[in-house]
Amino acid sequence: METVYVVKGMTCGHCAGSVTQELTALPGVENVDVALDTGRVTVTSAAALTEEQVREAVDEAGYELVGTA
Ligand SMILES: [Cu+2]
C-alpha cells in the first residue's frame, strides 16, 4: 500500500536522505519517495503503518510530520 505524508522542514537532498533512511527502517516499508518542493513523502509498505510510527521516524530524522496528504 502507498501512503503520502507531509513533512515540514526538509530543504535539501541531505534532509530527504535522512527521512528516507529513518522511514525505510520501519517494518514492512518497501520504498520511500521524497518530493522536496512539496514536502510530500510517499511511503510504499507491505502493511499499514501507524501515524505514531511515522511521526517518530520523521522526528528521529530531525523533521516534523504534519500529517497525511
Ligand atoms: Cu537538508
UniProtKB/TrEMBL annotation:
Residues annotated as domain HMA: 1-66
Keywords: Metal-binding
Domain of life (superkingdom): Bacteria
Cleaved signal peptide residues: none
Keyword check for Signal: no
Pfam family name, one: HMA
SUPFAM superfamilies membership: HMA, heavy metal-associated domain
Protein name as it appears in the record: Heavy-metal-associated domain-containing protein
Annotated source species: Glycomyces endophyticus
